[in-house]
Amino acid sequence: MARPKKIGLDYFPMDVDFLRDIKIRKIEKECGSESIKVLLCLLGNIYRDEGYYINWDEDTAFLISDEIGLKEEVVKEVVNKSLQVGFFSKYLFDEENILTSKGIQERYLEAKKKSKGIVIDAKYTAQREFMELNSPITTLEDEFKGVNSPKTRVNEEITGVNSPISTQSKVKESKGKESKVKESKQNPLQQILTFYNENISPVTPFVREEIEFDCKDFGYELVQEALRRTVLNSKTSYKYSQAILRDWKSKNYKTLEDVETTLKRNSNQQNVSQKDANTKSSAKVPDWHQETQKDDDSNRELTPEEIKELFGEDAL
What we know:
Residues 158-185, 262-316 are annotated as: Disordered. InterPro entries: DnaB/C_C, DnaD-like_sf, Lin1244/Lin1753-like_N. The protein has helices at 22-31, 34-48, 58-68, 72-85, 90-96, 102-111, 128-132, 140-143, 170-175, 177-186, 188-199, 205-218, 220-232, 238-250, 256-282, 287-299, 304-311; strands spanning 54-55, 98-99. By secondary structure, the chain is mainly alpha-helical. It folds into 3 domains: 8-109, no CATH class; 112-176, no CATH class; 186-256, Arc Repressor Mutant, subunit A (Orthogonal Bundle), CATH 1.10.10. The protein has a two-stranded antiparallel ribbon.
């Protein structure tokens, strides 16, 4: 009898900046420090059982709360906040009642890249949100190079081959490859990731997830401009770009035009200020003012120190 195929993982990778992630910090600020325990327990259950998702219902809420010794209300509050900030996919939660994310699925596929027959159910893939929005985004394995090999079927369903979402034949898929490549090149998210990878630092799954989240929140143009400024200032962390984006948000900049208009206005003001300063410094002081200044100096009383210096100690 064949040995049952293991779906879940024995361990999962965690980014060293996990606690510094803006999403985690928002969750912790809203729900308290115990929220970290809830998130780690959820991730452990996700990777251990199904590998890339967990069904969310009353039983799951009870099991998580019982496992870490917290009230179910606390666990539910953390889950709700996690969906709100994008830690878990709200789209798939609303559609399928599961907790997952693109980052979770990418890490799972990377861990299982040498396993045979490992697939992600097409209806659970994080790409569904982009597919139904008709976004020209590439599939997970297209963006996460090296996951598939000739001997494995990893992520086969996401590509649309043999999945309920698509019945296209391999012939049609082959004919459409060229157009898909062109689409991918024009994809703004891919352009941003390529720019970051080539000019700032390698794109980690954590950074990629942050960039994707910010593109939804701020738009592609503002994220691209923030990255450009990061490079100009010789910075090598995406945290610097996020600080720029937060500053623009506080100033209610919603488009690249808003940013450029303000920069132009500030530049004009600086030029005017510099011109005024140069005019003042180059202005000739009238002779009568200099004479008055001399008279003022000659009429003032000497200090005790000046008297000692001029006439000696006995002068006082």
